[in-house]
Specification:
The protein is of the alpha+beta class. Helices cover 37% and strands 20% of the residues.
Length: 342
């Protein structure tokens, strides 16, 4: 039965054209034998309309995109690639997909600009990198990794981060690249409400276009996590949420990897991502219990809405959320892809 699941997984990936052709038969055999266990979990943000209120064709766009993200990451992990490489590749794809609030298609600040944040963390080494408030970096997650790999720092922000990306040959885009017609119209409507002194739309009224994130366990037992976002629609210029803050929006160590999505200020004030690790380390809670505690007992009790994805060193996963929905998916060497919204 286990061998049949592995065969079906590889058939799924090859049929969709998302697994590189160079994946060796040796890697497939090792996965089938159970000696090379890997796990991938992705999210496309928490929030959005309640179940039944999204058009079926729109739902399919999201689920198809999550499936493609899973295919990209599983191709890397199944061929023996690192969790760090898988996390970066998955988030790059999602930053390029205008459905999500990261990279192209990010929401706009009060001045009509896309200001982007991202972070990545390597559980094996404890190293991390982040960028905040960047405006011309096509893939902020790659800039975050470059900060981690090529500097002694953890976070670079604003013009300094943009200049760093140019210097290190990262792909640069005109600020207009990130603005889609849909996002621009949403910004105009929000701006008009502000000018007429109408109440700003509540979080329930807004159609959430979520922050993206990924956590992974590779065949060598190493964990990694990453998160990328455009923040909140009509946020103050210069506002930074939890996504680029290590311990708030992203965390990875040798026990677990976590990526968060939701109302960033609450996640920052409660060190949400790190708190999952803390609950496991000091309270002895299993991953699912620790993640549930953070989302519901810690955050929701204080008015903070959102969710997180997490994986531990044994391949257990958790995906709790307190919002109407959370776009999410998971796949592993031992389980077929699963994509969910509600």
């Amino acid at each position: 039965m286990k061998h049949m699941r592995i065969i079906l997984l590889f058939a799924f990936i090859f049929v969709c054209g998302w697994l590189p052709a160079q994946v060796s038969q040796d890697a497939a055999n090792q996965s089938a034998s159970g000696s090379r266990h890997w796990v991938l979990v992705v999210h496309g943000g928490a929030g959005g309309p309640a179940k039944g209120n999204m058009k079926p064709e729109r739902e399919k766009q999201y689920t198809d995109s999550i499936s493609r993200a899973l295919g990209i990451g599983s191709g890397i992990l199944a061929s023996g690639g690192s969790s760090l490489d898988a996390v970066e590749a998955v988030i790059r794809f999602m930053e390029d997909c205008p459905l999500f609030n990261a990279g192209k298609g990010a929401v706009l600040d009060e001045d009509g600009k896309a200001e982007l944040d991202a972070s990545i963390m390597d559980g094996k080494t404890g190293k991390a990198g982040a960028v905040g408030g960047v405006t011309i970096i096509k893939n902020p997650i790659t800039a975050a990794r470059a900060v981690m790999d090529k500097t002694d720092h953890v976070m670079l922000i604003g013009p300094g981060a943009d200049a760093f990306a140019r210097t290190h040959g990262l792909e640069i885009a005109d600020p207009s690249y990130f603005i889609t017609p849909e996002r621009y119209e949403a910004w105009k409507a929000a701006k008009q409400k502000t000018r007429t002194e109408q109440p700003a739309p509540s979080s329930e009224e807004k159609e959430k276009k979520g922050t993206v994130g990924c956590v992974a366990l590779d065949v060598n037992g190493n964990l990694a996590a990453g998160t990328s976002t455009g923040g909140m629609m009509m946020k103050m210029s210069g506002r930074v949420g939890d996504s680029p803050i290590i311990g708030a929006g992203t965390w990875a160590d040798k026990n677990c990897a976590v990526s968060c999505t939701g109302h960033g200020e609450f996640f920052i004030r409660n060190c949400a991502a790190y708190n999952v690790a803390v609950q496991m380390l000091y309270a002895g809670k299993p991953l699912a219990e620790a993640a549930h505690f953070v989302i519901f007992d810690l955050l929701k009790a204080k008015g903070g809405e959102g969710g997180l994805i997490a994986v531990d060193k044994d391949g257990n996963i958790a995906m709790p959320f307190s919002s109407n929905a959370m776009f999410r998916g998971t796949v592993s060497a031992r389980a077929l892809p699963l994509v969910s919204i509600y």
